[in-house]
């Protein structure tokens, strides 16, 4: 566990362990919860489908495509929850595949037309 004051920046780095230099890692989704076993009931989206949901979220340049670096402000859940747990999902793409989610970034799904 990391002890962090409220509103202090929390810096994170995800690393892809692969010998393939042609891969790129991208933060797709990060969710916070006061319960490490339940990220649905009481949860807070920091990033969802590559789209920042928290205004303090920011990404940082990395010299290697195998690293994803980002930060957000520390917060706590109301109702006496002493800890916040994170669950992040990453996407791995081919380096240079500009049609991939890694390069397209924030994507929201289009709603389907229900006529016909």
Integer tally of domains: 1
Largest sheet: 4 strands, antiparallel
Q: How many individual β-strands? A: 7
Describe the strand arrangement of the main beta sheet, using strand numbers: 4-3-2-7
Unreliable residue runs = none
Helix tally equals: 1
Q: Report the CATH C-level class.
A: Mainly Beta
For the termini, the CA-CA separation is 53 Å
Q: Could you name the CATH topology? A: Immunoglobulin-like
Cα gyration radius (Å): 16 Å
User: What's the helical proportion of residues?
Assistant: under 10%
Spell out the CATH superfamily: Zona pellucida, ZP-C domain
β-sheet strand percentage: 35-45%
SSE-based structural type: mainly beta
> Averaged pLDDT, please?
89
Architecture in CATH? Sandwich
Sketch the topology as an H/E string, one letter per element. EEEEEEEH
Q: Please state the overall shape, judged from the principal axes of the Cα atoms.
A: elongated
Structural commentary:
With 116 residues, the chain is mainly β. The protein has one domain (9-104): Zona pellucida, ZP-C domain (Immunoglobulin-like), CATH 2.60.40.4100. It contains one helix and seven strands. A four-stranded antiparallel beta sheet has the order 4-3-2-7, with no helix packed on it. The radius of gyration is 16 Å and the shape is elongated. The mean pLDDT is 89.
């Amino acid at each position: 566990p990391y002890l962090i004051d409220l509103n202090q920046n929390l810096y994170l780095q995800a690393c892809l362990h692969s010998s393939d230099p042609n891969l790129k890692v991208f933060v797709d989704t990060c969710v916070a919860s006061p319960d490490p076993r339940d990220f649905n009931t009481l949860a807070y989206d920091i990033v969802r489908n590559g789209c920042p949901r928290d205004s303090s979220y920011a990404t940082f340049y990395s010299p290697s495509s195998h690293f994803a670096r980002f930060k957000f402000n520390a917060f706590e859940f109301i109702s006496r929850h002493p800890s916040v747990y994170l669950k992040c999902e990453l996407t791995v793409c081919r380096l240079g595949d500009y049609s991939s989610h890694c390069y397209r970034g924030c994507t929201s799904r289009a709603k389907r037309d229900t006529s016909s």
